[in-house]
Every structure is written in C-alpha cells, then in structure tokens.
Design a protein that fits this description.
Chain lengths: ~140, ~350
C-alpha cells in the first residue's frame, strides 16, 4: 500500500492547473478596454456611495460563530468515538460505550438550550424594525 | 469490490514498479488528470446545457436547441464566449483577494474527488481518514466565498459573502454529524470500507445501503447538502431578487466561469458524498460501477435542480432558525438514536 497522500497532492496540482490554464487562455483571447463607467461597481444602477470595506454592518452571527466553534470541536471529538463504537460495544458493553457520549452531548445540548433562550441563534432585528416592540431592549 | 487505488493500477498497467516513489508521482498525476477530466466533462455538461434544459422543462419552455444535436454544442459556444469576454476589474477591489477567490472556489471543490470510489477501481486515493478529508475539502469553498464577497467592494457582494458564512456555519454541523452517524454503522472513515459495508443484503434483494438502513439520516443529509451547495430553498447567498447575485456580482469573464464551475463541481461533490455514504457508492446491478456512480451523482444533481425550480427561498432569519433549532437538534438525536440501535444489535 503506497502513501495515498501522493495521489491527493497530485489532484491538488491538477485542481490548480485547470483554473490557471483557463485564466491563461482567457487572457490571450479577451479584450481590455477599461472605461470609467464600466468600472464602477454594480449596485442595481445606483451610484455607489462609499466603500463596502469600510461600512459598519451588524454581522448578526457573532454568537452563532462562537457556537459553531464549540460544536465543530465537538464533531472532531465525536468522530473517533463513532469509528470504534461498535467494537467497543462488543468489548465492554453498551452502557460503558454509550453513556459517556450521552453525557458529553447532553452538556452541549444544555449549552445550546442556554444560547437558544438568550436569543443567540436568532436573527437580531434592527432597532428601527423593532421600535415599539418589547421583545428587545 | 476492494481494489487497489488508481495510481497503483496504472503502474501495474504500464508495467512499472509500484514501490518506487517517482513512478507513483507520475501515475498519480495521470490518475488525477483523468479524474479532473471526468469531473470537468460532467460540469461542462451540467452548467451550460443540462441546467438550462432541466429549468426549461420545469418552467415549460424550450432551451438551447439551436446548435448541434439537442443543442449540445452550446457547451463549446459558451466556453468560447465566456473565455473571450472582457474581464472588467471594478474600482477599488482588493486585488490579490479578488483574483484568488475564484481560484479557491474552483480548485478546492475538485480536491474532494481524490477519495471518492467511482467504481471499476477508479479511486485516486484511499486514506484511512477519507470521510473527514472529504468534509474538510468541501467546506473550504466558503473561504473563497468570503474572499469574493469582501474583496469586490460592492455592498451586495459583501452581504452575499456574509450570508454564505451564516449559512455554512448553520448547516455544516448537521451535515457532519449526520455523516458521523453513518460511521457508527460502518466502523471506519475509509471510503472503500464504508462502501464495502453497504454490500450485504438488508431484506431480500434490497442492499443495505445506508439510505435504506437509516432513511431519517438520509433526508437530513440531503437537506443539509442543499444548504451546503447553496441551492433553493437555501440560495440566499446569491438571491438574485434581493442582492443582485451576491458574492459573484462583480465577476465577469473567466472569473465568472471559475466561480460557476466551482459551484457545479461542489454540487457533484455533494452528490458523490451522498452516493458513497448513503447509496452504496458505485454498487448496482448489471451496469458497470462507474455508470452507476454517474447515475447517482446526476440523480442528486437533478434533485438540486428540481428544488431550485420548485421550492421557494427561505428568509435569512428562517434559515438560521431552521439550521440551529431544527437541523442541529435533529442531527444530534439521529446520532444518539443510531448509536442506541447499533448498540442493541451488536450486543
């Protein structure tokens, strides 16, 4: 059995070579006539005001992103357990193989429930949209 | 069903020594070029031709029937047309990131196919961590989407990029957890083992494909996969009626082709993952394995196009709530349920 990562590396080379070739072919074929009006960003025909890289925008999912990190690490820890699970059941019995994972997932579910109750997995409405509503303060 | 990976088969075919590293590098490159060509052919068929034909059939119209048999030569015409278009570089784009994003989107999608068993011994590599690897490569595309959204200097692109992240954050975990529930059955992350574990008979002639063994997980995975590839009802990152075209608004010419290409390869990668872990990989009666594999990935492609034509788009707040309150809880329940069932049957 040879090292499978050689083949994966080879596919990485091919996967980069295909788009790069297309870009090279295109650069030989295409015209380049930059004009003032053509080069403005397309925002539905409105004249763009300001740069999008400087606008302040509520990205909404700061808490969701934190939760994602927690659950992503959780999946990393679950994967080895899934691999050995059926062997472990045969060896030490179902209680010993399953209960620790139930406890582990249980703690995470409690965490998710806490985040849920605190509105972390909810799309926050803007103050203007919620003016008069008493759900947010 | 077990066979050597493609590079070794090629080395034996060319009468070269499969133990030498140089030979393996050369045959790996040949094999990778074959896989790349196969997937590019599928994408070329799907993007300019099949997608239009399918959408036209759903909306009772006639599409691309002018050039060649069934309008098939539109593929060549479109390739020439799109590659020879002017590349408009908008003002104020963040240059290296703007150029790299299409490259990232297109090339990472292709990477996942390295470990997919396609039947008839067509499998480039078979590492022990196959399933984890394929999930890792499939989620790399979101980096490209963020780069494209941020670097375009367009508010709609920016919104599209942010929406893409929100969506991928919400649906990645259910996708991977449901994939993990399959590993409980198979007891291995190696793709060839997962396929081999699905070959016994379940009831009578019905094979024990995990879609039949655990239909609940299959449905969950199909839904999460729709979100992962950004098709209706989860296509809010590009929602044309709301934010023009999302992160791809400012891309023209070859960059547009690359982003589109990446999306279609990604759909096929999703199909390949589904085929491998739920539909018995390349297994099937009468026809050779590679044909069955292609039928299965095109089946998933047809399903995404069907959803695209038939299902309305959900709102961004609904999407977050479906993902975190619905899919995540259901996928955790599915994981524990699978563990209990497997535990009881093993004991």
């Amino acid at each position: 059995m040879s090292n499978p990562w050689i083949a994966i590396g080879a596919l990485a080379v091919v996967a980069l070579a295909i788009p790069l070739t297309m870009m090279a072919v295109s650069s030989l074929l295409r015209p380049s006539v930059p004009e003032q009006g053509k080069r403005t960003t397309y925002e539905s025909g409105e004249v763009p005001t300001g740069s999008s890289q400087q606008i302040k925008f509520n990205i909404q999912y700061y808490m969701v992103a934190l939760l994602f990190v927690v659950f992503d690490i959780e999946t990393v820890l679950i994967f080895p357990w899934t691999v050995i699970y059926s062997d472990a059941v045969a060896e030490v019995g179902m209680t010993k193989a399953l209960l620790p994972m139930v406890a582990f997932i249980g703690i995470l579910v409690v965490g998710l429930g806490w985040a849920w109750r605190n509105g972390a997995v909810q799309w926050v409405r803007s103050p203007r949209a919620t003016k008069g509503a008493d759900t947010y303060e | 069903m077990q066979s050597a990976p493609l590079p070794e088969t090629l080395a034996n075919l060319l009468r070269l020594d499969p133990n030498s590293t140089v030979v393996m590098i050369v045959t790996s490159l040949i094999g990778a070029a074959l896989i790349g060509t196969l997937m590019m052919t599928n994408t070329a068929l799907a993007g300019p031709w099949a997608k239009r034909k399918i959408t036209a059939a759903f909306t009772d119209r006639i599409a691309v029937d002018r050039i060649g048999p069934y309008g098939l030569f539109i593929i060549v015409a479109d390739a020439v047309r799109l590659l020879s278009k002017e590349l408009i570089v908008p003002e104020g784009v963040d240059r290296p990131a703007w150029d790299l994003a299409p490259l990232v989107i297109a090339s990472t999608a292709l990477l996942g196919f390295a470990v997919i068993p396609m039947g008839n011994g067509i499998q480039l590599a078979d590492p022990e961590v196959g399933l984890a690897y394929v999930f890792a490569t499939a989620s790399m595309a979101s980096v490209g989407l963020v780069m494209a959204g941020y670097a375009s200097n367009n508010k709609y692109s920016f919104l599209g990029g942010l929406r893409a992240v929100a969506q991928n954050l919400a649906y990645e975990i259910p996708l991977i957890l449901t994939g993990a529930s399959v590993v409980i059955f198979a007891g291995s992350l190696q793709m060839s083992e997962i396929v081999a574990a699905q070959q016994q008979s379940l009831i009578g002639p019905l094979p024990s494909w995990y879609a039949f063994v655990n239909p609940f997980a299959f449905v969950l995975f199909m839904i999460a996969n729709l979100a992962e590839v950004g098709r209706n009802p989860f296509d809010i990152p590009e929602a044309p009626t709301e934010i023009v075209a999302g992160y791809q608004t400012e891309y023209s010419s070859v960059y547009f082709v690359l982003i589109y290409l990446g999306e279609f390869i990604h759909i096929f990668l999703g199909g390949a993952i589904i085929a491998t872990i739920f539909l018995g990989g390349p297994a099937g009666p009468v026809l050779p394995g590679i044909v069955w594999f292609l039928i299965k990935i095109w089946g998933v492609f047809l399903f995404t196009q069907w959803a695209r034509s038939a299902v309305p788009r959900v709102r961004i707040d609904q999407l977050i709530e479906i993902g975190w309150k619905g899919m995540l809880v259901l996928s955790l329940a599915n994981l524990l349920l699978t563990a209990v069932i497997v535990g009881v049957t093993v004991q």
